Amino acid sequence: MPEEAGFPPAKRFRPGCGPPGGRVVMLLTAGGGGCGGRRQQSAQAQPAASPYPEAVERQRRSLPIFPARGQLLAQLRNLDSAVLIGETGSGKTTQLPQYLYEGGIGRQGVIAVTQPRRVAAISLATRVSDEKRTELGKLVGYTVRFDDVTSEDTRIKFLTDGMLLREAISDSLLRKYSCVVLDEAHERTVHTDVLFGVVKAAQKRRKELGKLPLKVIVMSATMDVDLFSQYFNGAPVLYLEGRQHPIQVFYTKEPQQDYLHAALVSVFQIHQEAPASQDILVFLTGQEEIEAMSKTCRDIAKHLPDGCPSMLILPLYASLPYAQQLRVFQGAPKGCRKVIISTNIAETSITIAGIKYVVDTGMVKAKKYNPDSGLEVLAVQRVSKTQAWQRTGRAGREDSGICYRLYTEDEFEKFEKMTVPEIQRCNLASVLLQLLAMRVPDVLTFDFMSKPSPDHIRAALAQLDLLGALEHKDDQLSLTPVGRKMAAFPLEPRFAKTILLSPKFHCTEEILTIVSLLSVDSVLYNPPSRRDEVQAVRKKFVSSEGDHITLLNIYRTFRSLGGNKDWCRDNFVNSKNMTLVAEVRAQLRDICLKMSMPMVSSRGDVESVRRCLAHSLFMSAAELQPDGSYVTTDTRQPVAIHPSSVLFHCRPACVVYTELLHTSKCYMRGLCVVDADWLYEAAPDYFRRKLRAARD
DNA sequence: GAGCACTGC
């Protein structure tokens, strides 16, 4: 046990174990109420396909959910809505859809199972179609962006929650579905949260119209499901035990001033005491921290006493190139310990086998949104209790585990109970555009499970209004024809508007490229250790007109060379993201063609591209002040050019930006040099109002 | 003058 951090004796617990509150039906399971299930295998860790049907069947029958099958189906058959708590490894996600189908619920319509992430939707569909011994895309299929593997025969369909939401735009009653299972509901992504409201409304409306009832099942891995139950008219809560292994939790005796130092000490204490085969997972907040800690660990590991096992230090964060991310899944050489130093990506998105120890700093970098200023603040903050438990649970996936919390138990008690749902801390413009496209009667009173504040909603409506998407008629809010077209694009409303404006400036081809580049993770790869090299190589693409034009140059060169991977490596371009850009671009171009938009190119004329950006991003502009600083044109907020911008060392008189980010300062990211006159031309009324407001 | 948690359509 690390002594310097001062850990008192451990507390034993099972994540998710304990009596659930509220109206709960305990379902009969094999584990039978005690802690520490009898079986050692885990549902998700099983190999996907088995050539032997009996083996597949035996495996299915061995899952904790199996003994509850009859009871579960009997309950669900009679319910409109239900909440199902299933612990990790209970088998709920793979088995429940099959039970529903076998119970005849898929006979009159498709069973939809939503997932927050693409990879989960794809791998679950693959797994379940294997279990049913059918070809993927027949009985069992999946739909995610760019990839629809379903057919007329499909009865069980896994899809991302965002995808079901998009389907709801063309059919808000979700007519093709007999049942919607909302999985991972505890994560409370914006898409899941909007879907709660959409399925609830569809369920009610279908009942009123005497149509096929819509069954809604909300699945959560955590206990705090009262909100779900209340929201769905007091839906019963069904509780299913899982196969999580016991985990010992240690808190520090004293609060830690320096969580990085405490993490470092803990890692090496564990390293000196535990067998080399037991891996460690450390949660930190961001790339810079993780790289620095990795380097320090490697340096220290070189000077360890004889007899101490060696250490394989693996950083893990989303912007790390894919090949390097994959290294965390490979086993360490014999006699060597894996130490994975990760962001919260390892909390939910990436599951690593063989983790025995979790070191939780209790910190996370997360975005907050201020609707008044439209400002996103990215700040290091405390995790919530549910997040801390999620991290702890990562230690007990295959066997019992140990979690060191680098904070005191008193501190933990003061953590927020739950992470604030994303819908209350993001820009709502996209969400409201989608709801309006579904012809929701009144977005201001829409039945959100956790309501965003009225100011928050009004700010988003104001933004949509500026983009020309809204129509007010007899106190009713609806979409203009432009607004309706905007909703067809899988983009932020302002970028959809940029595309719709582009024919006027004869630069649709260029704008499609730029918008695609903006809507995926950066194609620029910036390894901190090779900064000078990166700068030298990138020079040939840099445009004095800003980041958008620079990106356009990079994409053009990439295409002219036929999408060459070697070129990407040599030019510090992330080839995976670049390939994705091409896919996004093709999808957006398709949507344009369906709208009969003319496909025009401005050829070499980048001024028209900049004019187009000025006309759609006029509300995100900043002007140079006499003292060399910048202020935004809308709220006179002092801002600075982000160091990642190609204009970082320049002083253009007027720019539009694609993002404001508050870290140590308020930074503009993604800049384009524009003419102040263009902005005024784009929205004369808006700027006249601003001028008047400034005078008063 | 110096920096970017994580998804998704």
Give the helix/strand layout.
Layout: E1 11-13, E2 24-26, H1 53-62, H2 69-77, E3 81-86, H3 92-102, E4 110-115, H4 118-131, E5 140-144, E6 147-149, E7 156-160, H5 161-170, E8 177-182, H6 190-208, E9 215-220, H7 226-231, E10 237-240, E11 247-251, H8 259-273, E12 279-283, H9 287-301, E13 310-316, H10 322-326, E14 336-342, E15 355-360, E16 363-370, E17 375-382, H11 385-393, E18 401-405, H12 409-414, H13 429-437, H14 454-466, E19 470-473, E20 476-479, H15 481-487, H16 493-501, H17 508-518, H18 531-538, H19 547-560, H20 565-570, H21 575-594, H22 606-616, E21 621-624, E22 630-632, E23 638-641, E24 654-662, E25 666-673, H23 676-682, H24 684-695
Parallel strand pairs: 2-10, 3-9, 3-10, 4-7, 4-8, 5-7, 8-9, 11-18, 12-14, 12-15, 13-14, 15-18, 17-24, 23-25
Antiparallel strand pairs: 1-11, 5-6, 16-17, 19-20, 21-22, 21-24, 22-23, 24-25
Helix pairs in contact: 3-4, 5-6, 13-14, 13-15, 15-16, 16-17, 16-22, 17-19, 17-21, 22-23
This protein binds one DNA strand of 9 nucleotides through residues 116-118, 144-145, 160-163, 165-166, 187, 189-191, 285-288, 317-319, 343-345, 347-349, 364-367, 378, 380, 422, 430, 434, 489-491, 519, 522, 526, 587, 628, 640-644, 648-649, 661, 663-665, 667, 669.
Protein name: ATP-dependent RNA helicase DHX33
Main location: other
Enzyme class: hydrolase
